[in-house]
Amino acid sequence: MTKKFLRQDWMRHSKLGKRRKKIQKWRRPTGRHSKMREYRVGYPVSPNVGYRKPSVERGKIDGKKPILVYNLKDLEKADKHSILILAKIGAKNKMELIKKANEKGLEILNLGRVKNAAK
Predict the structure, then answer these.
(1) Which residue of 1, 49, 80, 115 is surrounded by the most CB atoms within 10 Å?
(2) Tally of domains in the chain
(3) Would you say 74 and 56 are in contact if contact means Cβ atoms under 8 Å apart?
(4) What are phi and psi of 3, to 5 degrees?
(5) Residue by residue, what is the 3-state secondary structure of 26-91?
């Protein structure tokens, strides 16, 4: 799991995300006397190059390579080591792709609220 970096003094102010997860967003500390900017011990850590994922894992979701699927031709390119993301397509085509993916045993990431999805 990746580390969540939070903004300096987020716990003090509601506008910076206190009790509001949606707006807890990283901003680099830039203050003149900021201990966080100086990477002092005992203060929250800032993101740096050491926290980056290994190049083999980068861009993957749960260890699988994401593939954007528009049609059946794109679905044929997928294998067991990939995870499908359905593109913005109509309900009829989406249902067809879901059935084919289930036959192949492939995982679809963004099913959302598809009605009558073949499981």
Answers:
(1) 80
(2) 2
(3) no
(4) -75, 140
(5) CCCCCCCCCCCCCCCCCCCCCCCHHHCCCCCCCCCECCEEEEEECCHHHHHCCCCCEEEEECCCCH
Q: What pLDDT, on the 0 to 100 scale, is given for residue 116?
A: 61
71 shares its domain with 117 = yes
Residue where a domain terminates, one of 18, 33, 52 = 52
| pTM for the predicted model, two decimal places | 0.64
Name the residue among 83, 79, 77 with its Cα closest to residue 61.
Answer: 83
Beta-sheet pairing, 82-86 with 65-69: parallel
Tens of pLDDT along 98-111? 999 999 999 999 98
6-19 per-residue burial string, b: 16 or more CB within 10 A, e: under 16: bbbebeeeeebbee
Q: Could you tell me the residue range of the domain that residue 71 belongs to? A: 55-119
